[in-house]
Amino acid sequence: ALDYPLYYQMGSVFATATGSTGQIENRYNNLTTANYDASALNSLVLNLDNHDQPRFLNAAGSTTARLDLALVFLLTSRGIPSLYYG
Description:
2 strands
């Protein structure tokens, strides 16, 4: 399953710089078996872009440097990274 809550938080932290990294920390701290099966906690799919949402670089204030940081986060975070090319 796509981790849409984290998708929106990554957008506010990295793309628009309107959120704080504490939002991402809280998201990971609040991943519990109340909402997810225990075996799925490390298998949520993380994405920065997909065909249903505006592209990362279309967000107001986003830059390629912020995209680089977001990609580093995406590729090193808990979960399965998904790179959308469309």
